[in-house]
Amino acid sequence: MNSENVLKGFVVLAFAGAAAYFRELLGPVAVLLAVMVLDYITGMIEAWVNREMSSRVGVVGIIKKVGYLAVVAVAVVADWVIQEAAGKAGLDAGGINLFGLIVTVWLILNECISILENLAEIGVPLPEFLVALVKRLKKSAEDKGGGSPAEK
Q: How far is CA 81 from CA 61, 93, 101, in A?
């Protein structure tokens, strides 16, 4: 067996393990990754159109995206701690990654707003109902999660 097949097998095993462990969180995290890439691309296009493109802006964007994943990881750890503590106390927490899911959905909506803002900056006409809908959904996620840190 060559090393390329071993690497492919390891990647498949890692994704299968993550899917089994995170269950309901895998889909939203995959969507988050997709919208993060789309936001980065539209942000770079917007910077190029406005002649503000620089490698520093690109690197800062990537660092922010890595930070988003760190926030999701912290929320997943919080879910795990709560589930473990509940299990030790003889309670069933249901095994749901509630904080991880709320944080991931909030970040997805945040990225969608940023994508729409980038597109508006480069002159793409946007249906106003779509902008309002995404902002309303983000507000709803904030209300369910206790608000955003910027509000406190």
A: 30, 11, 15
**In this structure, are residues 102 and 147 in contact, taking their beta carbons and an 8 Å threshold?**
no
Q: 107-110 — which CB contacts under 8 Å span 24+ positions?
A: 107/32, 107/68, 107/71, 107/72, 108/28, 108/31, 108/32, 108/35, 109/134, 109/137, 109/138, 109/141, 110/138
Integer-rounded Cα Rg, in Å, for the chain is 19
Name the 3-class secondary structure at 127.
Answer: coil
Q: Which residue has the tokens 């597109």?
A: 119
| Domains of the chain by residue range | 22-146
Output the pTM of the full model. 0.74
Sign (positive/negative) of CA torsion 68, 74, 80, 86? negative
pLDDT digits (tens, 9 = 90+) for 92-145: 767 677 888 899 999 999 999 899 889 988 998 888 888 888 888 888 877 776
For 42, the token pair is 């539209």
97: left (phi over 0), alpha (psi -120 to 50) or beta: beta
Q: Which residues contact 31 (CB under 8 A, 6 or more apart)?
A: 108
